[in-house]
Amino acid sequence: MERSTSRIRRRGVALACIGYTVLASTAVAARPDSRPSLRGMRPQEAATKAGTLAALRDHATQAVCGDALLDAGETCDDGNVVNGDGCSATCQVEPGFECTDPIPPSDGNVVADGSFEAGTPNPSWTEFSLQFGTPLCDPVSCMRHGASDGDWWAWFGGIDEFEQASLEQTVTIPPAATMLSFDLLVGTCDSNTDFLGVRIDGSELLHYNCALTQGYVTRNVPVAPFNDGAAHTLRFEATTFATNGHNSNLFVDRVVLDDHSGGPPVPSECRPLPPLCQGFDFDTESGDLGGWTRFHTSAPAVDWGTTDDGFCWSGTPDQVPALNVTGGSGAAACADSDAAGPGVLDLYLCSPLLAAGAAAAPEIGFRYNYQIFEAPGPDDHFEVLTGTAPPSAQSIGSYARVFSTNENHGALTSLPGDEEHIPIAAQNVYACFRYGGDFDWYAQLDDVELRAAACVATDGDGDGVADVLDNCSVVANASQRDTDGDGIGNDCDADFDQNCNVNFLDLGLMKAVFFQPGTTDTDMNGDGNTNFQDLGLLKKGFFLPPGPSGVSNLCSPH
């Protein structure tokens, strides 16, 4: 189960099933620096130990939707399997919604360093690899990103010679810890006789014969009868025979054996997306990205392109159109330093003018997939800049950076992608997407949108706060004072007992503090006293619900 603690918001999209597996693309053309292709081997040498394993039990299952945990392949998990609430019955964000990632329970994992982030030599795991010394990898030692979380993962196989490798540790398994889970990615298979095994005290609980996976999948393995409160030896092992002269690649990460001692998980929270004000995709802009401005400040004469123009293969050479791995449909805009060859790229793709000046709470949203081949360097970045001047190499210096990352987002050359929603100031701006790379993979971009609480904001009471953001939209209250924190401004809120109706009970509460200074909730106009002016405001709303409020509130949550 994925133990991400972020609250990333993900937008919904109808995903087509893609017959493509991470690391299973056709061979990448030779590179001048001889870096291995994704189908290739771990950088290193050669191997030997056979092993015939008897009577095997495979109790592995796939990810569990509805458990409020973000398993591999899920984009949300709201704790149920109901369609129509933003997170579907298969734990995918539904179109028209955005969802936060669930927050996992506080740590109840009895496996030490289950994501291998302590590196090698690892203080928690005993490591062995016939060919490489250890199966543990990070982007520096193995020259690519392969983790499902963090930087480190276990790479079993990875060479076209006999290889055997293992990781093991001693772990105390309490009765409450009933299921071992781990993330598994199988990118290439030389033969289905190659296998990954899981053992406890020498007893094999899982024997997985090599078979490709669609990216990382979560495998669950029951551990009974070893959950008896005693110490046991947990072991992951793999043997690859190179029967056909090729290599198999089996990646393992995020090993969890949960004793449920932590707090409960917090499920995904979903909400409808704000109204769409402007939207752009790249299905019809092949080649010239019509209406968008492209330029570069780096030496190579390279600019952003699209996945259907034959330049941006993004890890899928000779495939035109290349896969759109952002989560969008049709073509995506892309920048690909790997396809461009050696050299540093600094490329800009700038939108038409975004009419955010009259909007309430505008935000820029987009889907993307951004990958770095090696450890991030000073030239690696994916950024969003906004500015009011028409975009050019000369004006870009005046733009403000509103988003920046040099970490991988999305799966490597496959779904899922990732997305962002970035609040911006209420002014008309251009948005420039900046990609920097040094012969180390790509960025893809799709479904760029301007959304807002209101595309053209109205302010009926003239207090400078748009009605859709105003907690009292019929009485001017620029301060938005709300002393009881119920989402309804004091000027409109005589519901002192918070039963969503103004009546004699509220009048009694006001009378009890009449003429008293320093009162808060009953001081509706904020002059420091509860007096006849406040009584007049109460009378206007007698026998009515409080408000109206344009924001989510106690009596009208949204």
Plain-language structure description:
With 558 residues, the chain is mainly β. The chain folds into three domains: 47-67 and 107-263, Galactose-binding domain-like (Jelly Rolls, Sandwich), CATH 2.60.120; 274-451, Sandwich (Jelly Rolls), CATH 2.60.120; 469-558, Dockerin domain (Type 1 dockerin domain), CATH 1.10.1330. Helix content is 4%, strand content 26%. It is built from three helices and 24 strands. The protein has helices spanning 337-340, 504-511, 532-540; strands at residues 9-11, 97-100, 126-129, 136-137, 153-157, 163-172, 179-188, 195-200, 203-209, 217-222, 231-240, 249-257, 270-272, 276-280, 293-296, 305-306, 333-336, 344-350, 363-370, 381-387, 400-405, 418-423, 430-438, 442-451. Strands 14, 16, 17, 19, 22 and 24 form a six-stranded antiparallel sheet that branches. The protein is flat and about 90 Å long. 46% of the residues are buried. The model is unreliable at 1-62 (pLDDT under 50).
Give the arrangement of secondary structure elements:
Elements: E1 9-11, E2 97-100, E3 126-129, E4 136-137, E5 153-157, E6 163-172, E7 179-188, E8 195-200, E9 203-209, E10 217-222, E11 231-240, E12 249-257, E13 270-272, E14 276-280, E15 293-296, E16 305-306, E17 333-336, H1 337-340, E18 344-350, E19 363-370, E20 381-387, E21 400-405, E22 418-423, E23 430-438, E24 442-451, H2 504-511, H3 532-540
Antiparallel strand pairs: 1-2, 2-13, 3-6, 4-5, 5-12, 6-11, 7-10, 7-12, 8-9, 8-11, 14-24, 15-18, 16-17, 17-24, 18-23, 19-22, 19-24, 20-21, 20-23
